[in-house]
Design a protein that fits this description.
There is one protein chain. This protein is of the alpha+beta class and about 425 residues long. The protein is about 50% helix and about 10% strand. A hairpin with a 2-residue loop joins β5 (about 230) and β6 (about 235). The longest helix is centred in the middle third of the chain and has 31 residues, at about 240-270.
Amino acid sequence: MNDHTTHLSTTIPSTPAPELFTWEFASDPYPAYAWLREHAPVHRTRLPSGVQAWLVTRYADARQALADPRLSKNPAHHAGDAHAKGRTGIPGERKAELMTHLLNIDPPDHTRLRRLVSKAFTPGRVAEFAPRVQELADGLIDSFAGRGEADLIHEFAFPLPIYAICDLLGVPREDQDDFRDWAGMMIRHGGGPRGGVARSVKKMRGYLADLIHRKRSDPGDDLISGLIRASDHGEHLTENEAAAMAFILLFAGFETTVNLIGNGMYALLTHPGQRTRLQESLAAGEDGLLATGVEELLRFDGPVELATWRFATRPLTLGGEDIAPGDPVLVVLAAADRDPERFTEPDTLDLSRRDNQHLGYGHGIHYCLGAPLARLEGRTALATLLTRLPDLSLAADPAELRWRGGLIMRGLRTLPVSFTPVS
């Protein structure tokens, strides 16, 4: 028995195990994650869906799991039938034939598809998109600046990445409000009508199939047209692969950024000293603190609480626990990014933190493809809000704010703010 296993077996908790996945937990999961890191760093639990899964909470274990080839992204490796019943993955994606996307496949298919789409997210291509992101941010603020109050989730953090990713994909402007409605249903998770997410996925699938058909005969300079043109060693994407790729780029590319902007602004509004430092830096024309600040906000209260599903293909040991083939494994990014073994004073928000190799966008071959675009949108959104509305303040008791239900993402339902009206 190694030292690590001995430590786990002899540690006697001074407090009882916390209850997970309650509404109280959703508001502030970090004390529960601290308990798990200390007493049960790789912990088998029953999820609200009824699925049994392992939660990985320590940074070193999390990095190992995220890059371990024995942990597959393909739900076919799950020992149970939970995925067939819609209890893992995105509701409705199987029925809509949208399974063949980057979050559900392994090499070599993952390597091929990622290479085809990665050209759209190079630093140079993202930099070209910066003026459009700025235009969107300014236009959204213009729509409420004269009122002196707003809900920053629904009026700013949500529409900005939706319209940005629609532009990138090549969704015509006249159709983008439909996408906004479908995405709104998907982001509500349990808060919308029963089956609403699956219906929205089905509508989106039908629209994407039609859009792909139209762009075959009339391509443009957009990502869907690029996917249609793309070939790898002479092999073209199938229509299902192109639709699934467009779908997951939209799904993964908007909610993470909604939460980055929402969680980030909430953290700044509740840490006035850090917010003042950032505003002073922006007023001086500097962007260094903005860059490190966005990374710190991703670490401190990031948009993705748990990495998406993984399934063991072979027996493995993680954090002293034996994981059997077919077992689901969920890496808790929010817990790993506050591990005191890796980060100094991890529960302190420090926008100037330099040693910050957080896992907010994952690690290994499944590292978030859209991270450069999300960072651009996050930096632009926060800087524009703090510059144009300098006296922005929270217009609600933090204890009254509600966080959205759901297993993977972490984000606020609303973020009411007030400020001096700007004509």
